[in-house]
Amino acid sequence: MTTTPPDQSLPSEGREMGRQRVRSRTDRKLVDATMRIALQRGVDAVTIEEVSRISGVAKTTIYRRFHNRQELLDGIAHTEMVRPLDMSHTSFDVEGIAERIHAAVQEFDEAFGVKAVGQVMSSDSGFFHSVVVNVLEPVRNRIADYFKRGAQAHKFRPDLDVDFILDLTLGGMVATAALHDGVPQEWPHRMAEFLWPHIEALPQGNTGSQPTNPTQPLQTVA
């Protein structure tokens, strides 16, 4: 009786999907190991041998992808570390702002952790600069897009200083993560509640005063 060889038991599409899953898991291990070494001991400590030891991925496998250490660093810096969350239907209110901030926390945690964001952004290393361009800036741009769409929908102030809001939110996120060993579950909502009075659009026809713009200095009375 003729039997089907094990490697032919699945349709070609299934075998290809299996290979892609294995490759994806390997990519994740290499990213995590490289970032861990670079953040804890510096970029100079990243070697193929050390990445292999930390990740558990065989050196032969790594060398099939990267010929040397520099190719490894370049490849990791350009790897998709974050899977963007679909926020296209997020509401433009306190709950929506909290949801958008929480999504950013998740994205940073998936990449290398919120606590490491400040270290990555402040480093003068070419490797970390590439990580900023390919990982951090896209996350920041997605948050900016949310606030811009909210202003266009007349839910947020039309003169909203998006860059300032982003600096305030991301800076607070990184500081909170450093102080509390992570971002507490309730923090995104607390930040959203803080921001809302300053960015909420006035109802049409309402000429009342708007809450103080956090981008403008407070006026003092002599």
Description:
- By secondary structure, the protein is mostly helical.
- It has two domains: 14-77, Orthogonal Bundle (Arc Repressor Mutant, subunit A), CATH 1.10.10; 94-199, no CATH class.
- Helices cover 62% and strands 0% of the residues.
- The chain contains nine helices and no strands.
- The protein has helices at 12-41, 48-55, 59-65, 69-77, 94-111, 117-122, 126-152, 162-180, 187-199.
- Helix 1 (12-41) crosses helix 2 and helix 5 (94-111) runs antiparallel to helix 7 (126-152).
- The radius of gyration is 23 Å and the shape is elongated.
- Mean pLDDT is 87; it is low at 217-222.
Distance between the termini: 100 Å
Number of strands: 0
Radius of gyration: 23 Å
Residue stretches low in confidence (pLDDT < 50, at least 5 long) are 217-222
Number of helices: 9
Give the overall pLDDT as a whole number: 87
Global morphology: elongated
Q: Pairing-aware structural class of the strands and helices?
A: mainly alpha
* Total individual domains: 2
Write the element-wise H/E pattern from the N-terminal end onward. HHHHHHHHH
> Fraction of residues in helices?
55-70%
Strand portion: under 5%
Report the major sheet: none
Q: In a few lines, what is going on in this structure?
A:
The protein is mainly α and 222 residues long.
Tags for this model:
single chain; 222 residues; mainly alpha; Arc Repressor Mutant, subunit A; 9 helices; disordered C terminus
Which helices and strands, and how do they pair?
Layout: H1 12-41, H2 48-55, H3 59-65, H4 69-77, H5 94-111, H6 117-122, H7 126-152, H8 162-180, H9 187-199
Helix pairs in contact: 1-2, 4-7, 5-7, 5-9
